[in-house]
Every structure is written in C-alpha cells, then in structure tokens.
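Write out the 3D structure for:
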Amino acid sequence: MKGGIQGMKISQVSLVLIGLVCLTVLALAWTKTTFLTSFIPTQSRVLQLDLVTSDISGAPSFAVTETGPKEILEEKNNSVQTGIKQVESLSSSGTEVAVERGNIENVAITDKGAVNYVEALKDSKNPASVPDKLPGGKSKSKQAEIALENSLTVDSSAVKEQTRNLSANTGKKGHRQGEICLLRLFCSAFPAQKNLILGTSVFNISSIGAESLPTVLESTGSEDSGGKNKSKQAGTTPEKSLAVEPSIKREQTQNSSATSGEKDCNYAKGKWVFDDNWPLYSGYGCKQWLSPMWACRLTQRTDFEYERLRWQPRDCKMEHFTRRKFLKRMRHKTLAFVGDSLGRQQFQSLMCMVTGGEERPEVQDIGYQYGLVKARGAVRPDGWAYRFPRFNATILYYWSASLCDLEPINASNPQTDVAMHLDRPPAFLRRFLHGFDVLVLNTGHHWNRGKLNANRWVMYVGGVPNTNRKIAEIGGAKNLTVHSIVKWVDSQLPLYPHLQAFLRTMSPRHFFNGDWNTGGTCDNTTPLSGGKEVVQDKSSDPVTASAVTGTGVKLLDITALSQLRDEAHISRYSIRATPGMQDCLHWCLPGLPDTWNEILFAQISSTTKS
C-alpha cells in the first residue's frame, strides 16, 4: 500500500510520532509538576522537608522531597521540590527534616540556624528580639536524625542565651502564630509520626493533635501579660504530653531559680491554725498500718483538739495533700524512710494518709524484696515495704537508728559486740539506693551512752576502732556520722539523677521534771500553750542543717514547729500503761508526723514541678 509503513497510513504514523513526542515531554517535565510528583513511587525510607522559598515577610516555605540512602549518607541535598506550603511568620533557612518510613515516630530538624530561630520563637522574652530572617541565610544541611524520645525536651538556658543575641521586628502574635502553623504543617503532612524534634525540643504531635497545638504552645511559652518570664513547667503524669529529661532537670531548676530570683519556700517558718477539715484520716480506722501503741484514739485519752491543728507556712502556700495527688506524683517510684522509731512513725503516718486510714487489701506487702522479714526470735522485722499496684508506687521503712553501718565483730558469737562504723553508710542503703526516688533520713535520739552500751555498739572509724577522743564523745560521733552519710548520699546523686534526698531534723522531746526513766512528764493537753508561731529563719537543729549545706541533700526542717506541740505526745496514755513512765518522745497518730509528711509532699512537688 502506498504512503504507509507496513500497511499504515501516513496520518496514522504522524499521530504515533506526535504521541511519542508528547510522552517524552511529559516524562521530562514529570518532576517539575507538583500534581504529578505525588504519583512517584517510593524509592527510599526517608523523607526530607526543605525550606526552599520565603514569602514577603521572610517566612520559609516547605517542600516535601524524597532522596535515597546514598544522598543522605553523603549529606547531599539533591531532592526535588514536590509540594510547597506557605507557613506564616517564619524565616527562611536550609533545614532538613527526616522521617523514617514505615513505623514513623519522629521528625527532626537539625539545622542550627533554624533550630535557633524556632526555639527563639518559643522562649523569647521580647518578641522584638526575634529576627525576621535567620542569620547567614540558607546553610548546608547536616545528616537528618531519627530520635527515639517521646517527650518534650527544652534546654531553656541555651535558648535564653540565643535570644539575648537576636534582634528584629517580629511581633508577639506573629511569631506565636508562625510556630502554630509550623506544627500544624507537620501534623497534616506526617499524621503517623509521634514526635517533631526541634533541636533540643521534642513535640509529641501524636498525643496533642493539631487542634490542641495553640494550647500546648502557650503552655511551653514564656510570656505573660506583664511581659515577664513565666515558665509553665511540664507535668510528669502519663496523661500529659510534655515532660522534662531527668538528665537536665537539675540544671533547669537551678537556671529557673537564678532567673526568677525567687527563693525556695521556708516551710519551717509559719504558724499553727485550727482547721475543722483535719485530721486527714481516722485514728480508729487505720489499724492496718498504725501500731496500736501510737493510736491515741484507742487509748484512754479523751481530748483530741491536737488533731485539728494544721501548719500554715508564713511566706508561701503549701500544696494541699490528697492521697490521689501523692500517688500520681509517685507513680512508678519508691519512697524510702531510713531512720529511728520517729522515722517509723512518719512512715506509718504516710501509710495512713495515702490509704485514707482505711483497709486496703489491694496494697501488696513486698518487704521480702528488700530482705525485710522477721528473723527467728525477733520482735519485728527491720522494716516494711508496701506497693500500691495501680500506680506502681512503693513506700518503705528501714530501721537504722544511727545511720551507721552495723557489723558484728564476731558473727559466730550471739553475744558479740557490734562495730558501729561512723563513716560508713548502712549496707541496706548501699544495696538499694539505686532503686529509690525519694529518700528521707533521720537520726538523733539513739545518740546517748545508754543506748550505745545497751546495743553493745563500739565506735569504728576507717574500719578500725576509734581512738580519737573528740569523736568518742557522743556529740562528736553523731556530728561525724551525720556529715558522713550526707556526703555519701550527695556523691551518689549524679549517678541517680531521679533521686531526691532529704535529711529530717530532730524531733523534740518534752520531758518535764525528769527524763523518760526518772519520772519525766508531759501532762499538758492544751494546744499551743507555749505559742503558735515560728518566726526564725534558721533551723533549730544546727548540726543537721550544717550537714546538708552546700550539698544536693535537702533539709526537712520540722524541729521548731514541733517544739510548739508538747500536748501531742503519747504522754501517759497507752493501751498498757506503765506506772510512773510517760512517753514524751513519740507522737499520737493522727498527729504531728502528718504535718511532717505534708511538708515532705510539698517539697517533693515543688522539685518535681521545677
């Protein structure tokens, strides 16, 4: 057939050629077309988000591009623009965001310039200090990072230092809206990933959702209506999406205190007030946790006005204790009391407060996990440990009246003397300290010659019997021990940054006209007959206060406020009263040790929030 190729007409051949040319042009223009690029099949495991353009205000625009592993490893940026989304009030920078495909968890921005800018937006005290353009223009992108954290991490000191050196004209509303738009972009572009990482900050997008971003950003902001720095700290409970890394928590707390100029609350300074909402539990009902000898409601005592007194700090508000708040704050944590019988009273008080003074069969006795079991022939075990399974919170007590390591000199002889190592912490602490989150230490009333002789305790220093006469005196021995235990605990704090350690000051005695074994009494039943207020700034226990000075161990100062409460002792009331003897050392429960725990809770809470 003429005019054709193998039977085809000339017109048909022309149409085929035109079609081939069109396909060629379309193929060459494929990557230049935004709509068509969305149909490109996946060829790598990493998406990159580049800041490639900027609008009139200097705000960067984002383009989602795709590169292969080779380009990422060589730190090249050969990706092709596929979709430009304008973000308001941000500046341009060469920034990469890497997202791992499949089980996508994080988006990380690693470019230093963009990180400085975004963090400046988030923490700037003065909106005018944030530049409308990043210094240096578009910088070379570093290899994208895939991080595993699921919570927000903010290096506040670094951000503040950066923002001090910035200057610009961007308004408060503009940079806040820009940050909101940035996070909303990620929420919509990468709905499956968990976190957006901006340098030192990680935004948990999967938890907060795009609609909640303005609220979350406000909670991490640093401006109030007066223009002052007002950091809203992140919570620690699982239902909140923002948290603080333990490794920088102490530094953040110090920086925050230094910036604000605020001093820690002196909970020991204040006054006693009557409150009809007190006590926090029933002395009749807390039989599961409270020793009968300390439950004054079960004795012949008939006056209970001492139960209605609440401590009110003078210069600050003490957070109200509730069992639920305490357990939520202690979720997955362990609180340990280590000390003498007054420490045991504080432990039993807290158990009653946390259970509401009621039977709690769900609470688990886990003393065996700490070796706290009653030995054959012993009256009681060396301590107790209980776990609240719903919160995985543990409260325990270990008896160590002197806070020394006690070691039998001749283990094979039941009547042997016991080496009292003044400069060595108890073996229990050395073994279990790593598992504690809150530690409360106390000692005091066993430091007398009668107790040492009755227990056959022999003073040792440096692993050998003590020969120093000054240390041989009771005051010198106690002083050495208190300073030694504090120094050791302080040395362990960097190893266990989750640990908060407290040394409680001495609980006062109120024996009048004699001592515990010479007819001393405490018959007063009128509350606050000797005064109701503590106005001094310094502790009434200078030995304990001086031991913690300059260390990471905190002071739980209860001496002066307890000194006003001579009517709250066991006194002559007991289930089995001993004629001629009164207990003017221990306290009725409910009673004064509940206040010690309220102050402890307040100090734990203030540190946790910081």
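Residues 340 and 445 are 8 Å apart (CA to CA).
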